[in-house]
Amino acid sequence: MRPLTRALAGALALSAVLFVGEPAVAASRTAVTASQGDASQLASSKALVMDFVERLYNRHDLSAIDAYLGSGFVQHDPRIADGQAGLRDYLTAQNATHPHSYVSVKRVIAEGDLVAAHSNLVLAPGTRGYAVLDLYRLSGGKIVEHWDTTQEVPATTVSGNDMFSTLSCPQVSRPAPYAPTTSNKQLVTDMYRQVFVDKDVTGFDRYIVDPYYQHNPGFANGIQAAKDGIAGMFSAFPDFRSDIFRVIAEGDLVVIQSRGTFTSDMVSGVFDIYRVRNGKVVEHWDIVQNVPATSANGNGMF
After folding, report:
1. How far is CA 21 from CA 12, 268, 283, 292, in A?
2. I want to staple 209 with a disulfide (CB 3.0 to 4.6 A). Which of 112, 183, 216, 280 is the partner?
3. What is the pLDDT of residues 155-184, one digit of tens each?
4. What is the pLDDT of residues 194-235, one digit of tens each?
């Protein structure tokens, strides 16, 4: 694992936050998933990913790799070599060292051919473990590509909120089935661009409403805490830039995958999850990981 320190995680936060050496991708080249897909296909894709996670990470059944991954599987986790063999070798070693490890999935968001799973990875029962966002791309009923970020779960947080729970009402983790996916996706994308690409923190006033629940460990709840924290980050890192790579939305939940560049040798991969209620952002989770200088697969994290 390559978790950031708590202080750096706070500095990277994206909504009260803000989530190798490849060149930065300009915001104009952002890859945004266009197709929402029908409900039955999304449900099928989510079920496939959940079955895969259960078999591979909770039952430690490595045959799930052959059953669920495509033959040309592309890996973006910098710790793991490319292809089916790379994942098998990595998990064989991890299972030997941590035979009782497990994953608890907290929320799943799907759009088009992408499925995002927000989870708590626990290597040793009784420990807090890690917050993880896994993003899977599916094709032909198989998982063909994977991205992720991983962050250690701290003992305490500034807000007093944990990294996984849902606090805004209704307190359910699944996407709201009748929420306006398209407009929610556009709202969060617009907010993110104004605040993190254009560096205008007044975007929080326009798009967020209090009570605003914050799950980034380094930030307090509320709009003002978001503005103060991000303005401070921009002041400390005047050359900061954010590049958006993917936006995935389902109902009232929107996931943004981005890269935050603070300095030439201080770069982070970030996944943010925002919850939208009645046209305003009301809750935020994120997972932040530093981008290593080298990768076991050479594909980059994005």
Report:
1. 19, 12, 32, 8
2. 280
3. 999 999 999 999 999 999 999 989 999 999
4. 999 999 999 999 999 999 999 999 999 999 999 999 999 999
